[in-house]
Amino acid sequence: EADGEVPKQWYQRRVRVAEFWKEEAAVAQPKKHTLQPIVTGTSVLGIVCSDGVVIAADTLGSYGSLARFRDISRLMKVNDSTIIGGFGDYADFQFIMKLLNQQTIDDSVVGDGVYRDAPSIHNWLRCVLYNRRSKMNPLWNTIVVAGRDFSGKPYLGYVDKIGVSFTERSVATGFGSYIAQPMMRRAIEENPNMTVEEGKRLMARCLKVLFYRDCRSLNRFQIGVVTNTESIISDPISADTDWTIGANPSGYE
Q1: Sign of CA dihedral 224, 148, 202, 193
Q2: Which is the catalytic residue, given 34, 104, 167, 195?
Q3: Which of 87, 105, 120, 204 has the most CB atoms lying inside 10 A of its own CB?
Q4: Helical ranges in 135-217 per DSSP H
């Protein structure tokens, strides 16, 4: 009888294991990819000045058309030479920030004094975003990289969710590419040697216009500055607005 109990126990164990995996198969779902962004941020602006780079973004996270989160930061200080700004899905941007934070920690642990400059981070982001796009599971972000290279020269780069990247004197994402980019280009033409302080005032003006025109924006924003000595992100700033201009347009009654 004792010998007969062993096969019986093994049989019962096999039945329990089979039932377990049968239940797992019933509740398991196919692997899913992000089909559309959920909580999103709108325009990120950047401009190269004579003595540094200025980058700016508002603090709104939109849940569809709902202005759900009004106090999120879409600018991240990577190190003393680089600040990035994220447009698009905020959860994916948080994932990118987590990766960059780990890279910064790894650099500190090595302790050899070598850090990643803005071009290095820009190229790394291009590879990451293109890799995810090639897996048909993109990170739904457009990233603006502001900073300086190892020689101290100002650097401003752009990379979108499919890995398209370039550098330019001024960049904008989202609705800002239609509204703010012409304003920045005109300012550069009129003042080619724009200083950081002038760039900050220009960013504030562009974001104020975007608040009037873009229903996914907010009049509360942050401005980041990268110079030869440091990189700083300001506390949130609230722009004064005047909606009496709404009475001026006619023909829409």
Answers
A1: positive
A2: 34
A3: 87
A4: 176-190, 196-213
